[in-house]
Amino acid sequence: MVPVTSLPAPLRWDVSVTENGLPRFGYERALMYVDGELCWWTRANPLVDPGPGELSEGFAAVRSTLTGSQRAGLVFEALASCERSLHEADLLRGGAPAIRLLKVRAACVEAAMARLLYSASLADSCRPDVIGGQVLATTTP
Fold first, then answer.
1. Considering the entire predicted model, what is its pTM?
2. Its domain of life (predicted)?
3. Per-residue pLDDT at 2
4. Is 94 helix (H, G, I), strand (E, B) or coil?
């Protein structure tokens, strides 16, 4: 793991760390991260003080724009899982802060996973040995 202080200034965040050196981020920072992931999907500006309900609706809209093989794939499932986690966090409004934080952190992971899976699927679709998401058998001369 790269120490935070050795990163360039734009990538350095002033984040407190846990006893084992992992970054600690709370509810607000987790919501900001999920909002950033939603901005990546929608190419829109970040929401002002987003709540889990607004973010859940945003990911539902993103999911509705997926087409064809994307709807049956892992990207669709990861976005659905993110939307579900945010919706559950919204239902817990006013109580169980630890569980709300857990749900929003899960949404962070699911949103990042959906983005990475989508990027990987785009990279695979550009490869000549991949058709319909399946790698063709190649022979070496």
1. 0.71
2. Bacteria
3. 43
4. coil
Q: What is the mean pLDDT of each run of 10 residues along the chain (141 residues)?
A: 49 61 77 91 87 94 81 85 96 88 92 88 60 49 45
Position 141 scores a pLDDT of 45
Of 63, 65, 28, 67, which Cα lies nearest the Cα of 49? 28
Q: Return the number of other C-beta atoms located less than 10 Å from residue 34's C-beta.
A: 28
Q: Whole-angstrom Cα distance, residue 102 to residue 46?
A: 22
Q: DSSP character for 131? A: E
Q: Which long-range contacts (CB under 8 A, 24 or more apart) does 32-40 make?
A: 33/108, 33/111, 34/82, 34/86, 34/104, 34/107, 34/108, 34/111, 37/82, 37/108, 37/111, 37/112, 37/114, 37/115, 38/62, 38/111, 40/115
What backbone phi and psi angles, to 5 degrees, belong to 134?
A: -115, 135
| H or E, element range at 135 | strand 134-135
pLDDT at 25: 76
Name the one residue in this structure whose structure tokens are 């785009």: 122
Cα 37 → chain centroid = 5
- Token representation of residue 60: 């539902």
Phi and psi torsions of 26, nearest 5°: -95, -160
